[in-house]
Amino acid sequence: MEEYRPEPDLVLNGVISADTNIMLSISRTKFFTDTSRYEIIKEAGVSLFVNGTFQEHLQWIDDNSFYGGGIYSSSYKPKTGDIIKLETTTTYGEAWVEETIPAKVPVENVTFSHKLIYDHTSYNVDSNGNIVEVPTIEITYRITFTDKAETVNYYFIRIDNPRPPFEDLGNLDYSAEPVFVEQVSVVDGLFGDKTIQGQGGRSFTDNLINGKHYTLVIKETLPGESYNYAPAWDRRIILYSITKSYHNYLTSMQLSADAKNSTNLSTFGYTEPVRIFTNIHGGVGIMATSQHDIVLTNLKEILADPK
Fold this sequence. Notes:
Layout: E1 10-17, E2 23-28, E3 45-50, E4 53-57, E5 59-62, E6 70-73, E7 83-90, E8 93-100, E9 109-117, E10 123-125, E11 131-133, E12 136-146, E13 154-160, E14 171-173, H1 178-181, E15 202-205, E16 213-223, E17 234-242, H2 244-261, E18 283-298
Parallel strand pairs: 1-18
Antiparallel strand pairs: 1-2, 2-6, 3-4, 3-7, 5-6, 7-8, 9-12, 10-11, 12-16, 13-15, 13-17, 14-16, 17-18
């Protein structure tokens, strides 16, 4: 396969938010037959420009908490509306990227409702030795915010469990919400898979909700026997305001995951596989900008004991 080996491309990855030091990871692509780990480039020149003016050179910081043992970091903390440009020079070539820090969109209210579903999938033994059915709990989240009418806006919503190891979470389903249904191919639904998944969250636009005071509806289902396991009930609802580039990247990642998790036309050779979006000029990767608002809650405080 060596005759098909291309020259490596630069890979730039980073997420930038207001009031946080700008950080960037720089690596290079590898050929699919290579068994070595990805190479993190530690001797690059990285220049930061803010609103068209040179600000500083990013410095390499040794830190084993980052993949590759470190990260490029600046002392500058951007503000809402800042236009951030990063230019990199390495032995593998040059690359650059430019993005704007979006405005924060606050979560105004979060309400919940729930119902018990007796679907004959889970049973337990009660204190008298009787076998009893344990219902599945379906939780409906209603997350309210206000979209700004004067601009095209992009968002990412995430529901997770803030306690390590961050795994105590039921199955999330976004199919009750029009802003997510809009993303899914209509013809894909012809194959019968109506669930819109996204355990790590999903991106959306304001195409259907421009300028509205809007409430997102997301559902979570989890087995009732987890009710008495306290860590399973902590929840963190995070609304990210993101740029178009970040939305395009996240959406391409979501569509790629959806294609693997459900019947998709590309499976039958009718469509091209999903191409992962990049905003890096002269390379690949993503330099994303965002702001976010967080609401913390504990579901057990608002849900009745299913037993």
